[in-house]
Amino acid sequence: DVKVTQSSRYLVKRTGEKVFLECVQDMDHENMFWYRQDPGLGLRLIYFSYDVKMKEKGDIPEGYSVSREKKERFSLILESASTNQTSMYLCASSAGTGGSGGTEAFFGQGTRLTVV
Amino acid sequence: DAKTTQPNSMESNEEEPVHLPCNHSTISGTDYIHWYRQLPSQGPEYVIHGLTSNVNNRMASLAIAEDRKSSTLILHRATLRDAAVYYCIRKLTFGKGITLSVRP
Question: CB-CB: which of A100, A108, A109 is closest to B92?
């Protein structure tokens, strides 16, 4: 059974903290993605990566950074957490070069982050 | 612009077919159309995708217009478990999706 695993389902952090959200996939996929999901706004792409040590900004990268040192792991970093970053964060992966193209993406279960 | 347009919501009766429409008028010739669905408290799951021809799998069918500016996801017999938010997407850019309710 293919899997995308996010390290935490629920997380509570304080304003100003540095926060790491971890995502691991076991399918040897080239592409990995981070989204956030907020009520009424759907899923919005934060960052994505097509290869190890490679990253591209999505639609809403401000306040976030990412790291992809190994193919199977893609980390989302909140340098200084703020209350407006309270959200559901979803990680996904897909095979193939240059993005999703004709292949399906697999999503993790999500991390619900609350910043207080 | 990888935007798609879907109605906000749709209702269906159990065991009847459901047709979920999507407009993607700015689609390029190489963009695939993907459909995902999201059940409460879960991440999105893949439903189906296609490029030009109609596609069928065990979950659904995808009918793509000849000009590729619109598509329709077809659930042949809706069940209560099909109640979810359905997203029609290009290039993994999600919108708000369409919320499908299924009446018993």
Answer: A100
Question: Which residues on B lie below 8 Å from A59 (Cβ)?
Answer: 93
pLDDT of residue A101: 63
Please state, in angstroms and as integers, the Cα–Cα distance from residue B11 to each residue in B14, B17, B19, B87, following that order: 10, 11, 10, 16
| C-alpha span between A54 and A48 (Å, rounded) | 9
B43, A33: Cβ pair inside 8 Å? no
- All residues of chain B having their beta carbon less than 8 Å from the beta carbon of residue A92 are 43-44, 92
Per-residue pLDDT of chain B (104 residues; tens, 9 = 90+): 668 999 999 999 999 999 999 999 888 878 899 999 999 888 999 999 999 889 999 999 999 999 999 999 999 999 999 999 999 998 878 888 999 999 99
What φ, ψ does residue A111 adopt, rounded to 5°? -120, 120
Task: Give A48-73 pLDDT, tens digit per residue.
Answer: 999 998 999 999 999 999 999 999 99
Element (H, E) at A10: strand A10-13
d(CA A40, CA B8): 10
Looking at the DSSP bridge assignments, the partners of residue A96 are: none
Say yes or no: B45 contacts chain A, CB-CB below 8 A: yes
